[in-house]
Amino acid sequence: TAHPRPLPVPLASVPQFFPEDVTRKWAWVCLGLIGLAALWVRLQHGGQPWATYWMDVASEIMDARNTAELGQRSLILNFGTRELFYNYFMAGLWLLFPGEPGPWIQRLGCCLFDLATIWLVYLAGRELSGRRLGLIAAALTALSKPLVIQSTLGMRIDTEPLAVAALILAT
Hints:
There is one protein chain. The chain is mainly alpha-helical. The chain is 63% helix and 0% strand. The protein is elongated. The N and C termini lie far apart (56 Å).
């Protein structure tokens, strides 16, 4: 005789890391831990320049310093095109932390853009399928290798994932 097929295990008996309905308080705690992990990964050795520190990255520091210290205010900057008001955001950080080295200010600015991106990805995931998916998406975004590398290098390209996350949330 044929052996009977085993019955599938009901999903309710499978242990899960997150319950189906994550409470608001638990979601805030997890999102805070995700944000701290993202900051730690991106800001360790923040003031030390990296091996591939080249003119493109240095020009962003020069533009922010010129805006903060010399008062040069323009929408079109010397080296190519950049996001509007990015230069002013970095100059504002420089005014908040005047004694910090340039690479640290660049990384801090990129980290703040990344934190905003992680927050928007969480909101988009929460809209799509609840807090659980939002937390999973936020954690994956926080540890995304391209975002970590771009933040570590201080590249201003971190504004693009922020814009994409905002567009996804808006649709």
